[in-house]
Specification:
Elements: H1 12-23, H2 29-61, H3 65-77
Length: 79
């Protein structure tokens, strides 16, 4: 697998706290960042699938975005 060096800046107190926390998991920064990026991508892909499913179902039911807002308010008021 090809890799590429990525650099970014961080406030020093945040970085120090981060380093202390990741030591508990026996991970280095690179391991953590790789795993965080993979998790982020998976969550975004899942969100995209859920959103697409919701759009498909709304279209089948003839519901618009305005209808969704109205329905949410109706349900919340009914609690």
């Amino acid at each position: 697998m090809q890799t590429q060096l990525v650099t970014f800046t961080s406030p020093l107190p945040l970085l120090k706290t981060f380093d202390i926390r990741i030591k508990k998991y026996s991970k280095n920064r690179s391991d953590f960042y790789r795993e965080a990026m993979e998790k982020f991508i998976k969550e975004e892909e899942l969100f995209d699938k859920v959103f697409a499913y919701g759009q498909k179902q709304a279209k089948k039911m003839g519901i618009t975005e305005d209808d969704v807002d109205r329905i949410v308010h109706e349900v919340r008021e009914g609690r």
